[in-house]
Design a protein that fits this description.
Elements (H helix, E strand, L loop, with lengths): L7 H31 L2 H8 L1 H19 L1
Length: 69
């Protein structure tokens, strides 16, 4: 059994963080579409604004992590 080296560990952490932000954006998109069609259009629009907000936050977090290296 091999242990991960220090060079792969930060890469793996960044991949997990990136995947979490992408998943959060995708889930908010699905939630927004379901609100739009089944509940209320205004609520769907409000939740739809979350998608670019989450992805912008993710880009900011990931860019901040690269500056420290």
């Amino acid at each position: 059994m091999t242990t991960p080296t220090k060079s792969t560990s930060p890469f793996l952490r960044l991949s997990v963080v990136k995947a979490l932000f992408l998943l959060a954006g995708f889930l908010s998109f699905v939630f927004s579409v379901s609100l739009w069609f089944f509940v209320d259009r205004e609520q769907g629009l409000f939740v739809g604004i979350w998608v670019p907000s989450l992805w912008s936050l993710g880009a900011l977090v990931l860019a901040g992590g690269k500056r420290d290296e």
